[in-house]
Amino acid sequence: MKVKARVEMVWHYGDPKRAEAIARSLEVDNAGIPDGLKKSLNVLTRWENGDVITKVKYSGEIETLIKALDDLVFSIKIAEDVTEKV
Prior knowledge:
Blueprint: E1 2-12, H1 16-31, H2 35-38, E2 41-48, E3 51-61, H3 62-85
């Protein structure tokens, strides 16, 4: 099933330095999006006042969107775990 979607995900940390570290780690992950997928998937992550904000624009098969969002949440979880220990 083909869809067009805009998604905004916000994670509240209350710690500007931690939010920046997590957002920067996602920038690296987002840069690795395969060229074929870049045409239909646009991901932008930023940090602001202790929050990490990710905006996703997508057009294509819903299964691919679900996988991309799942990957994003998994990447956030890893970044949270790493920054929690620092």
